[in-house]
UniProtKB/TrEMBL annotation:
<comment type="similarity">
    <text>Belongs to the ABC transporter superfamily. Ycf16 family.</text>
</comment>
<keyword id="KW-0067">ATP-binding</keyword>
<dbReference type="InterPro" id="IPR027417">
    <property type="entry name" value="P-loop_NTPase"/>
</dbReference>
<dbReference type="InterPro" id="IPR010230">
    <property type="entry name" value="FeS-cluster_ATPase_SufC"/>
</dbReference>
<dbReference type="InterPro" id="IPR003439">
    <property type="entry name" value="ABC_transporter-like_ATP-bd"/>
</dbReference>
<protein>
    <submittedName>
        <fullName>Fe-S cluster assembly ATPase SufC</fullName>
    </submittedName>
</protein>
<keyword id="KW-0547">Nucleotide-binding</keyword>
<feature type="domain" description="ABC transporter">
    <location>
        <begin position="2"/>
        <end position="247"/>
    </location>
</feature>
<dbReference type="Pfam" id="PF00005">
    <property type="entry name" value="ABC_tran"/>
</dbReference>
């Protein structure tokens, strides 16, 4: 589904990704772990096509697309979803407006007609209820005054509505209490644990992986994947840290 080979990428002239290779098949969940500053968020931004991130070498294939040729909105329409490490606040735009615009832009990209307000509201309320987010919160401006847990639940609602083929979730577990962690983990499993979907789960901590069991765990250090294994690798990292691996 996703094939990255020898990816080199820079921001503001600084080389961050230095020959990263990774292949993800449909139906798989891959966890990416690694020390601070290794380039994990950069990988997410490069995949999503965030302006300012320049790919200087390597290939980026998603389904039958060459991502390097595609604008961010075209990548999203092709089924790529990025959940942010730091969700942005959008004063003056309600969650409902934002989500409806996002979904209808996706549908337009796929040549499908927009949903009516009533159709959309039904989907949005069902997703919020499934994620344990009070549907009333959907009327409030995007993320403004939301707690950390509410932001992440709202992001999962967004993912459920967009229904992407491939999700890159960047530290979705940071700052969550146990209930929110469980809700977010269940959300990821419900929405994305399907034979035709895949997930790249960027995380610092093993605990999210108790809820979302990865098929593969990779260590990203200094811009490359330096080690790969199964779920047991996350447990080993939790015990031993990165010092021997990144060296
Ligand atoms: P991680 O998510 O693994 O903690 P990041 O991908 O966020 O790491 O960052 C990787 C490196 O890129 C860090 O050393 C960071 O300081 C650097 N970096 C990020 N943005 C910029 C920028 N705009 N200019 C220069 N360096 C940057
Ligand atoms: Mg970090
Ligand atoms: Mg990061």
């Amino acid at each position: 589904m996703l094939k990255i080979e020898n990816l080199h990428a820079e921001i503001d002239g600084k080389q961050i990704l230095k020959g990263l290779s990774l292949a993800v098949n449909a139906g798989e969940i891959h966890a990416i772990m690694g020390p601070n500053g290794a380039g994990k968020s950069t990988l997410g931004y490069v995949l999503a096509g965030k302006p300012g991130y320049e790919v200087t070498d390597g290939t980026l294939n998603f389904l039958n697309f060459d991502l390097r040729d595609m604008a961010p909105h075209a990548r999203a329409a092709a089924g790529l979803f990025l959940g942010f490490q730091y969700p942005v606040e959008i004063p003056g735009v309600s969650n409902l407006q934002f989500l409806r615009e996002a979904l209808n832009a996706q549908r337009k990209g796929r040549g499908e007609p927009p949903l009516s307000g009533a159709e959309f509201l039904k989907i949005a309320r069902a997703q919020a209820a499934a994620l344990g987010l009070d549907p009333e919160m959907l009327k409030r401006p995007v993320n403004v005054g939301f707690s950390g847990g509410e932001k992440k639940r709202a992001e999962m609602v967004q993912m459920g509505i967009i229904d992407p083929k491939f999700a890159i979730l960047d530290e979705t577990d940071s700052g969550l209490d146990i209930d929110a962690l469980r809700a977010v983990g269940a959300g990821i499993n419900t929405i994305m644990r399907k034979p035709d979907r895949a997930v790249l789960l960027i995380t610092h901590y093993q605990r999210l992986l108790d809820y979302v069991r990865p098929d593969f765990v990779h260590v990203l250090a200094d811009g490359r994947i330096v080690r790969s294994g199964g779920p047991e690798l996350a447990l080993e990292l939790e015990r031993e840290g990165y010092k021997d691996i990144a060296a």
